[in-house]
Amino acid sequence: MSITTILFDLDGTLLPMDQDVFIGTYFKKISASLVMQGYDPKQLVDTIWRGTADMIKNISEKSNEAVFWETAVSIYGSQILEDKHYFDMFYETEFDTIKEVCGYNPLAAETVHKLKSDGYRVILATNPIFPARATEWRIGWAGLKPEDFALITSYENINRSKPNPDYYLEIIKRFGVQPEECLMVGNDVGDDMTAEKIGMKVFLLTDCLINKEDVDISVYPNGSFKELNAYVEELRTQEAS
Q: What is the Cα–Cα distance from 87 to 233, expressed in whole angstroms?
């Protein structure tokens, strides 16, 4: 079956970064923003971690957004919902400053644009644990625009997360395509390569590799954007023969 749809992870894939540095900077900045509204930094960070864990475990019909705020309410009470506009303000006005700890690789945008021009459907399959606004900023840091993608997953629009293989099924169900028509590109062995479990092809981008379990990555097609483009071309040639 020919490949029609290519899914990309964002953080560490299209957007170069050290994930630990990014997360640490994010927590520092959101804590500094919300402390002015009376939120203890440590409790706030612990709450975000708990909410993230609950989103990752989500198998309900509730969006990840609903699950996150239910967790927050269980800790703070309904007051945190009344303060949600402060969180929204942070993502609108301050989140963009985290760009300073991220890298930039022009080959990321070049690759996405080339694949689109070649007729592939391109989807941004970033783990949906952030609001859409935070994801829009990160797309921009990578030199891309939201309209470059047929779908962008965020915590508002889906109820599954990586590494749950059902996350990938939820995405492709919206387009009526089969897993065998899809290629998932990502840098995290544990999160992104699970797409293979539902029948997708995968490519492990190694520029910012995350391999927590020290898996033998030779079992996956892998490399940088140069190797990715060569791999896609190889698939195209095989399909044509």
A: 43
